[in-house]
Amino acid sequence: MKQHDLLIRLWGVRGSYPVPGEKTVEFGGNTSCVEIRNRKHRLILDSGTGIIPLGEKILREYQADRENGAEETLHLTVLLTHTHHDHIQGLPFFAPAYQAYCSLYLFGPQLLGEDLLSSISLSMEPTFCPVRFEEMNSKKIIQNMTDTDKLILRNSGNHPTLYNIREKVDDIAPEDLTITAFRSYAHPKDGVFVYRIAVNGKSIVYATDTEGYVGGDSRLIAFARGADVLIHDAQYLEHEYTDPANPKQGYGHSTIEMACEVAKKAQVGKLILFHHDPSHDDDQMKKIEKIAQGYFKNSVAGKEGMEIWL
Ligand SMILES: [Zn+2]
Ligand SMILES: [Zn+2]
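# zinc ion complex -> structure
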């Protein structure tokens, strides 16, 4: 990688459940997972099934790096928006989590009064999963994050540190990754985290599983203002959202128009439509991308394998 480059790579763009098959080959069928890399660190947003092929790639790269003298410990940071299945179902199959040389840092909100650790452990109880979370061999460091926290990944260090947002942290350099969170309550039952990742004057906002409000979600618009890239939930077409026979209002997801409204009002550089409905095949996804570009020109429909360099 070139110095200071920031890379976004999409590994899973689908909402709700995975949809493999010939009709989703182009956009992909895996559920939510986004990789963000800068010169030194690797951040993973959500652990839907997209994290499984990412984990395999990480291990291949680790072996090659070790042969070139890289340090033994593999440090990985995962940020979870919430713990609905489509955002955690890849975690039990994330190969690095089984490696004793891996230090896995997991952050996310407390939901419905449950600590992140207890929600994840519960999802891997023996009735649901053959391996318990604590049986995975990596060193796992799990912390609840709140929207009054900021997470710093220093370029000079190898692990993330959580600070209060008001705390004055003196030694932050422009090339350090700074992550802040915004709690959106527009998702059942206890909301989600929207993350903003900033480094070297560049920023990415990851806003999945959030539903729009009339006139746009003003708190989200403020949080996303001026971001270079906004990854936003765009699960529904307008007619699906308002279908009287099966309305999707209140499901906690946005229409294409809602995503574009946030992008436009927040004056972001680029919009990536995300959390595609499992019923939308490749042909529909291409139409959806066109619809979005009519509202916000610099829109693309997120695709598995898509890379965006900043
Ligand atoms: Zn979801
Ligand atoms: Zn959800």
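# post-check
The CA atoms of residues 225 and 266 lie 4 Å apart.
The longest strand covers residues 177-184.
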